[in-house]
Amino acid sequence: MPEITRDFPLCRQLMAGLSPSHIREMVNSSYPLAMYESGLAAGESAYGHGGYISIPELPAGVAVRNSRRPDIIQESSYIRILSPPGGWLAAATLERLAECAEKYGRGLVHFTSGGTIEIYTDRRQMLPLVKELNAGGLDVGSTGDDLRCLTACCGPVRCEMALVDAPALATYLGQRFIDDQQYPGYPQKVKSAVAGCPNDCVRAMMQKDHSFVGVYRDWPQIDADLLAGWLRKGGDPAMLLAACPAGALAWAGDTLQLDRGRCWRCMACINYCPAIRPGRERGVAWVAGGKYGHRGPQGPMVGYVLVPFIPVKDDDFTAIGDIYGAFLEFWADNARKKERVGDFIARVGPVKILQELGLEVEPQILLSPKRNVY
Predict the structure, then answer these.
(1) For the chain, which end, N or C, has fewer CB atoms within 10 Å of the first or last residue's CB respectively?
(2) What is the DSSP string of 289-355?
(3) Is the whole-model pTM more than 0.85?
């Protein structure tokens, strides 16, 4: 490992200890460590706001961060790669990414919180880098006012709670709307994600303009034999009742009763007790308008539940794609410039939007977005 010189004492502090360190990774690359040291000393990043740059043949997927220390580095440009939903990458794909980062960039790969992958390079290397990525089955996009990379939880590939195949749905939407990820043409960026169940481990409803969440329309299934075994092994019946946020559970002796009129069909009791499983009538809820950002008149928002249940059978996601595409088209035609989806829904009204899309108006959409539940 290259040795950090005495010029970077703050970086050396962050490198101390046995835990994996981002500084170690930077040292093993050609990242300009002086930029980070400068930022640590000043108490703010040495990079300034950047933007999306135009490279011939690459309408999206390329961007730059400006430098506040041009004496160290003029700018930091990068390629944004559309990653497979669910975060599944074969070792061979990781090796190809590493080879591309070494050959065309700084030997550094960044896995972003938005579900994409970035390789830092310079503008002259971007086109040959993308061509090599394409040869390995990867593509770029997700910058500017376009459809951002569709992310998903791991889904049934690895999780027993999944009510819908989240990576499969995200892959379907990504392939169907690939042009929208690579050719900016919307009023503002559009972030989307798929959660396999209402646990929403990918925080889709909290931070995405569009989230598709696996749900069930019938009732939780209670296995009496498994429940008796759970109680014998020390399961706490009082804690099980307390786990239900709607107060829909009650005990009658050793029998667990469900008040269907109060049940939210969430996952709280299912998470707590293995004798309770989700219902079998499964589909997807469409939630639109979530965002973390403070920009816009509404500030941070939780999405509106516009359609609480879209049936999914035999992994046929066509109906979901049709609804998604119809909304994107309506939003593109009627939104103000730089108006995020949540602010657009708040201005136009969810009822008006559903009517324009020819969808049934459900009582859920009349709630405040901060109070919406399934």
Answers:
(1) N
(2) --B----STT-SBPPEEEEEEEE--TT--HHHHHHHHHHHHHHHHHPPTT--HHHHHHHH-HHHHHH
(3) yes
